[in-house]
Amino acid sequence: APSTQGALLYLSQYGYLGATHINKNNSGALVDEKTFQKGIEDFQMFAGLDITGKLDAQTIEAMSLPRCGVKDKVGTGDNRAKR
Amino acid sequence: YALQGSRWKVKNLKYRITKYPSNLKRSAVDSTIQKAFNVWSEYTDLTFTPSSGNVHIDIRFEKGEHGDGDPFDGPGGTLAHAYFPVYGGDAHFDASERWTVDSYSGTNLFQVAAHEFGHSLGLSHSDVREALMAPFYRGYDPVFSLNEDDIYGIQALYGKKTKKSSRPSYDNDDGDYDESNVNNRKEPAPKPSSGGSNADLCKDPKIDTIFTSADGQTYVFKGDKYWRLTDTSIAPGYPKPISSNWPGLPGNIDAAFTYKNGKTYFFKGSKYWRYVGSKMDGAYPKEISAGFTGIPDNIDTAVVWSGNGKIYFYKGTKFWRFDPSARPPVKSVYPKPISNWEGLPDNLDAGFQWSNGYTYFFKDNGYYRFNDKAFAVDRVSPAFPRDSRYWWFGCENAPEGT
């Protein structure tokens, strides 16, 4: 089951932390609580869970499911430079 | 559904499998991958052809770090990933997984591949839990069908199918029906024999099974023979041997139904068969215990109930509900008594949903019309059970009292 750090990695890997990128090698990356909570909420919404904003049992269970490696949030294009 | 933002400019796509998994035969992988592509060509004009040399979609089974900076993580966790068209469309599968075909154990290659190819074609993950493009692997689904969310998504990218397919067009309906039409449609009316021979059915109307195929035809099975029903009687030229239209299928079938994926399932003893139209859809028979875990052998009948689109199996005094998308597909509260279905008798012979939206059950000489909205056999005059010979098979006279 993912710890908070595991959850951060998960959220980053599947696109829930926006531009914040976390991997196993820079696990000390600073993510404020608000970003983490927003990431959890977005994941819960996407996975059809109760939206608590907390790393609760249902969220941990959903994060433990086998899944596709493609990001759930592939970006809205908001961060693209104007041509 | 969600679109990533890129798509292929051409509709005739080529693919190649450059690296195979170690635990499956190449031929099994080849056929499963093609079948997974067919999921998408079923509803669009896209075609997918295996090829060598330059291809659009390259498919590989890889372990750990495999050169794209997105390493796999061993068994479980991430199963596969694929690239959107703008990034090349390639699909990579974690070779550490135990990939399987038509089995509840391991990870089902067909379902995962069909999902990944959705990415290869430009679909992102859907937040519709039942959709193929939902990100989570839900376990083996023996009666897989593409969710309408996926169909809308792929057709938003590539348009609806315009070319005729050799396969039947599948019914995308979710099992609900238009109530306004139900009341306007009539019961099968009595009519004299219409050129076919209904002698067997008139002499002994007890049938083995009745079902409607994906193209809307209704068939009755009895022994080694089958009849096609018209709105009022039986069609000319029947009966015919079951094997003449469903090669490989034995006689004395216990039950049959057509699921919303357009495939027809036949049950006999401990085995079942799956057909697309008249063609057996793979290597059958298979064990009911493997494909429909939780359902007993030697069932009496099975229906897809319009009330919720789930599959109901009946045997003796009990029934089971099978939900292919649930784990387990049969909840522990089953079996339940058939008496829960108000007005239905035990030991049914056959059942199916007819074109008027009602579910009909047959037993011995008679039949019952079940009102899915009221959840009870209709209380109308003449009362049910009515005589199947007169009302369904076009036999000359209804016996007295029916």
Structural overview:
The complex is a heterodimer of chains A (about 80) and B (about 400). Chain A contains 3 helices and 1 strand. With about 80 residues, chain A is mainly α. The longest helix of chain A has 14 residues. Chain A is globular, with a radius of gyration of 13 Å. Chain A starts with a helix and ends in a 15-residue tail after the last strand. The C terminus of chain A is likely disordered. In chain B, strands 2-1-3-5-4 form a 5-stranded mixed β-sheet, with helices on one face. The interface between A and B is medium-sized, with 16 and 25 residues. Strand 1 of chain A pairs parallel with strand 4 of chain B.
Tags for this entry?
heterodimer; A: 83 residues; mainly alpha; 3 helices; disordered C terminus; B: 402 residues; alpha+beta; five-stranded mixed β-sheet; five-stranded antiparallel β-sheet; 8 helices; elongated
Number of helices of chain B: 8
Order of helices and strands of chain A: HHHE
| Mean pLDDT metric of chain A | 80
Task: Give the N-to-C terminal Cα separation of chain B.
Answer: 52 Å
The profile of the biggest β sheet of chain B is:
5 strands, mixed
Rounded Rg of chain B: 23 Å
Q: Mean pLDDT across all residues of chain B, rounded?
A: 86
Strand content of chain B: 25-35%
Q: Tell me, what's the shape of chain B?
A: elongated
Number of strands of chain B: 25
Q: Approximately how much beta-strand content do the residues of chain A carry?
A: under 5%
Would you kindly provide a brief summary of this structure?
Chain A is an all-alpha fold. Chain A has helices at residues 4-13, 33-46, 57-63, and one strand at 67-68.
Question: What does the secondary structure layout of this molecule look like, with pairings?
Answer:
The complex is a heterodimer of chains A (83) and B (402).
Chain A: H1 4-13, H2 33-46, H3 57-63, E1 67-68
Chain B: E1 12-19, H1 26-41, E2 47-50, E3 57-62, E4 78-82, E5 91-94, E6 99-100, E7 107-108, H2 109-121, H3 148-158, H4 179-182, H5 199-203, E8 209-212, E9 218-222, E10 225-229, E11 240-241, H6 242-245, E12 255-258, E13 264-268, E14 271-276, E15 279-280, E16 286-287, H7 288-291, E17 301-304, E18 311-315, E19 318-322, E20 336-337, E21 350-353, E22 359-363, E23 366-371, E24 376-377, E25 386-387, H8 388-391
Parallel strand pairs in B: 1-2, 1-3, 3-5, 6-7
Antiparallel strand pairs in B: 4-5, 8-9, 9-10, 10-11, 12-13, 13-14, 14-15, 14-16, 17-18, 18-19, 19-20, 21-22, 22-23, 23-24, 23-25
Helix pairs in contact in B: 1-2
